[in-house]
Specification:
The complex is a heterodimer of chains A (386) and B (467). Chain A contains 17 helices and eight strands. With 386 residues, chain A is an alpha/beta fold. Chain A folds into two domains: 159 residues, Rossmann fold (3-Layer(aba) Sandwich), CATH 3.40.50; 158 residues, Rossmann fold (3-Layer(aba) Sandwich), CATH 3.40.50. In chain A, the strands form two sheets. In chain A, strands 2-1-3-4 form a four-stranded parallel β-sheet. Chain A has a four-stranded parallel β-sheet with strand order 6-5-7-8, with helices on both faces. In chain A, helix 1 packs across helix 9 and helix 14 crosses helix 16. Chain A is globular. Chain B has 467 residues and is α/β, with parallel strands linked by helices. In chain B, the strands form three sheets. In chain B, strands 2-1-3-4 form a four-stranded parallel β-sheet, sandwiched between helices. In chain B, strands 6-5-7-10 form a four-stranded parallel β-sheet, sandwiched between helices. In chain B, strands 8-9 form a two-stranded antiparallel ribbon. In chain B, strand 3, helix 7 and strand 4 form a beta-alpha-beta unit. In chain B, helix 6 packs parallel to helix 7. The N and C termini of chain B lie far apart (61 Å).
Chain lengths: 386, 467
Amino acid sequence: MNGREKGILDTVERYYKDYGLRAKDLSAEGKKVIGYMCSFVPLEMITAAGCIPFRVRGNIHEPVTTGDTLLETIVCPYYRSCFDLSAKQKYEFLSGLVIPHGCDSMVRSYSVWSYSLPFSYFHFVNIPTVCAESSFEFFGAELNTFRKSLEKFTGKRITDDDLAQAIRVHNEYRDKVRALYEFRKADPPLIAGSEVTRVLTVGSSLPIGEANALLDQVLAEIGRREKTLLKKGPRLFIDGACIDNIELIKLVEEIGGNVVADALCNGARDHFPHTDVGGDPVDALARRYLGKINCPKTYRENKAGTFEGDTATRFGDIGAYAKEFKVDGAILYVYKYCDPFGFEVPARKAYYKSIHVPLLHLEDVYSGGTMGQLRTRIQAFLEMIG
Amino acid sequence: MAEEQKEAKPKKRMTATQAAASIGPLVKEFITGTLRARAEGKQKLAYTFIVCHHEEILRAMDVVPVWTENFAGICGAKRDAERFLQRAESLGLSRSLCTYALCGIGFDQWREELGQMPPDSPWGGQARPDVMISTGQILCDPRSKWYQASQQFMPDVPIYNMDLPYPMFQRDQDHRDVWGYYHKYIVKQLRGLVSFLEGQTGKKMDYDRLRELTDLSDRTWNLIDETYELRGAVPCPMGTGDAMNTMVPLCFMMATQTAYDFFVNLKKELEEKVARREGEVQQEKYRLMWGGGLPAWYALNDFNYFNSKGASFPVETTYRMVAPLTKMDIPDTQDPIEHLAWRWLGYWTFWYDKAKKRPGSEPDVERLINWIEEYKIDGIVMHEAFSCRTWHVGLIWQLHQLAKIYKPIPVFVAGKGGTKEKVYRELPSLILESDIIDITSYSEVDTRNKIDAFIETLESNRISKAS
């Protein structure tokens, strides 16, 4: 590792460990930092309003304490952790928070967040559950409500040009993330899965312009790597919701596997789809967030009329990534109490079987305390496929 | 096999009203009715969910609704859900998911595997559907995911997933500013259901009949409200235990004359009881509200236990899935589909205006406050069912917020210089924990110990009340 590489990756490491460090500084300078949960929040709208979108993150090493005095323990453990940290004022620098209709845990706890936290701005974005033409029309109207709400909060009008510009820079970021994933195609990969997660986690805490600049530097540094520090090993795919702590991925790496691709909310699910440019920006955002983000919460009609046809449509992106990144096996990592993913486990298992990718299904509780058990199960799985 | 074993039959709960006692045969009849319809093959059967404002459409099209939540509840009440839950688990579904759905999926998988009903199925079992109507709403993920998961075992059964959102309560927003586009969307979704059913049944919708059924439902809504208001009498003539029976016509039989007649009779029965001052509990000492959470269907006897301590339940938020249309601020329309959409929005936003007027309030909290006053409530009981986020997330916070903004109990305390001072205390509350149908999460001893301790608190408040 040369000195320059160490420099940018050290910055990533610092921002990852002290999550929100830069946002806190920007807030102190008077910038409005808007927290958000879930990939369904249209970040372009926040950027176009002149604010900084900031993904609220949990911490698997921090026991949930204050959060449990206000929110039930049957809530998704990832979400509970995010609420707990917020309730402990970890994110006190935020000016506001946006929560979408991503799952029951988000919807039912919206009042809990909005009454318990001291932010001056809260907004709920209703996301349709189905993908009909009328759903896009409805979602467009809902996005315009979000736009007005932000305009009222900031006192700044959001023009279509502002939105088009925001769409352009966020698409640029998505291009850069895609380029980062390209380094995972080598065997062994040129970049570790834990490094990718670290970079993407940090990226979601920065203003989009700074996130783009950071990615440029990371891409340049990884591009200069003459050889990888990783060893050849089973190439794994991770499927699930949001994994914003690197421990699970690091665990895989420690026992000889390489995480080379994913279908995660803070990974490919969110970063690969682009927003269309050139047309009505609100309509384009509605189509990206509802139509292109492949979340199990969104119902897509079974047009094939067969189970196999249905799973091929619903999970086809997984099959395509598995092929593109030459995966040897997959881990389906589902949080306890997660209804959208939980109900898909049998169908996902069947799909992986149909594409001949061995699968390990893990149910976990977003805690550092479970890593020991996970190690045993992952080790056995790697031995089986390795 | 463990899954073949059935649990011990529960003791029958004592009801306070004749109407509640008549529910068992009524439920059995509509379950067996679906089996008869399946055998005859003249009508289409639709798996579907309660509280979707679509019963009128189904009945106008002569489609037989198969209420899958109801069947799971019956399995729970008969303590015969475990074998279906275990089936679902064996497919890879976590026990932490909605156990209604797990029970239903486990049952479907078993029935499809056998090509016939699983052995000793409760009340003959759940009929195979021709179609499945899901509802992706703003709440309840399982409603959108359950049938999709069941379709793995019945790929020939099509799904229509109907989106029914409503505007969330946001303090800085008037819901009327946005409900125009919500209404437009819901109307399109309901019309989509009509054309889906027309395609499946080969029949055209009879809009005059739909209008008649919608009118019948509206009248039933208002009648239910008038009937349940009678429970405000002291002593309370009918409690939540009974309301967990009378929810059957309310949730599963709307848009039928039977449901309307049921509530006509219930209203008459309650009026007579009120005139005779006949209560659910004769020596009524405490009046409680079931303030949230679905019941543990296998443990409805706990309501009798409360009654044995002098506690009655004049009101509950659970399954009160109607609001008086006479007090609903929604536009008039002659189009029954448009009306259904407005009624949907009117129901879900019913408490919004009132909540805005009280600092720190919120619709669910506001409803608690209003009913505490209307039904003269002394304490609140809630139930946290571990497998359901839809109805059970937010309950702890509602109690917190309620305690923060509303303190209705006057008590005397010793003030400065030994003088008596009047202060106000919040209502005591109790949260019970178990599940809707998973009996393995329930302990009768622990539950009743909690109830005993709660009753002691109520008694202490009763003694020190300064009013």
